[in-house]
Design a protein that fits this description.
alpha/beta, binds D-glutamic acid, 17% strand, 9 strands, 4-stranded parallel beta sheet, Rossmann fold
Length: 248
């Protein structure tokens, strides 16, 4: 059996699932979108941890061997507690500051993430390790999660909302921008158009996929399941989840 549970506050984790499925096409996936409680960005760590516990129990009831917290905000809030309370392995997300810091030419990198991620000690520690060598500028992707959850991925309204959070980073001289929320890759075509081809955006999904494959190997979890496929679940309406899924 190779059952992989993947969760997010909504459809954002599908940007991680899309990448994972390329490497593990024959696994069985159970995806959970907690969209009745989305966005997580401004919720307390206690609330998010409780939701993650409930969703972990759900995955266990579906036979999960490993769980991917495909949400930077939930990882920052809950992964240490989940690892302490459950014996199955958890893979989390973190803004990819390191590759951005190593790759910048201008010496300034931008981080786009939720308020919860940007104030979490996990991120602040990572940032502290690189701040001596590069300038790090941050912005909450204000309204980005709501756009993706409502299925709006392009058009004038989307450009307007994206510009508000992206332009301050570009004006500060960032040539490399970390996508620190799993919803944001769905807005990448708009962001790239606004920023121009010389700005590089980093989506951590490929690195998370490599980590997942490595941990599965170490834990002896097979890469193939006799019943491969995807089960989609959500705590709220499923229309936008299905729409984003159909675009993968
Ligand atoms: N997709 C999530 C993340 O990676 C959470 C977005 C939200 O619910 O605010 O942070």
């Amino acid at each position: 059996m190779a059952v992989i549970g993947i969760m997010d506050s909504g459809s954002g984790g599908l940007s991680v699932f899309r990448e994972i499925r390329k490497s593990l096409p024959d696994a069985k996936y159970v995806y959970y979108a907690d969209n009745a409680n989305c966005p997580y960005g401004e919720k307390t760590p206690e609330f998010i941890t409780d939701r993650c516990r409930n969703i972990t129990e759900f995955f266990i009831s579906k036979g999960a061997d490993i769980i991917v917290i495909a949400c930077n905000t939930a990882t920052a809030a809950a992964i240490a507690t989940l690892r302490a309370e459950y014996s199955l392995p958890f893979i989390g997300m973190e803004p990819a500051v390191k590759p951005a810091a190593l790759g910048t030419g201008s010496g300034t990198i931008g981080v786009l993430a939720t308020a919860g991620t940007l104030k979490a000690s996990k991120y602040l520690n990572t940032k502290g390790r690189f701040e001596d060598n590069v300038r790090i500028v941050e912005h909450v992707g204000k309204g980005f999660v709501e756009l993706v959850e409502s299925g709006h991925l392009d058009g004038p309204e989307v450009e307007f909302v994206v510009k508000e959070s992206l332009l301050p980073l570009l004006e500060a001289g960032a040539d490399t921008i970390v996508l620190g929320c799993t919803h944001y890759p769905f807005l990448l075509p708009v962001m790239q158009r606004i920023a121009g081809p010389e700005v590089r955006f980093i989506d951590p999904a490929p690195a998370v996929t490599r980590q997942l494959v490595k941990v599965m190997g170490e834990c002896g979890i097979p890469e193939r399941d006799p019943n491969p496929g995807v089960d989609l679940h959500s705590s709220g309406p499923s229309e936008s989840l299905l729409k984003i899924y159909s675009l993968l």
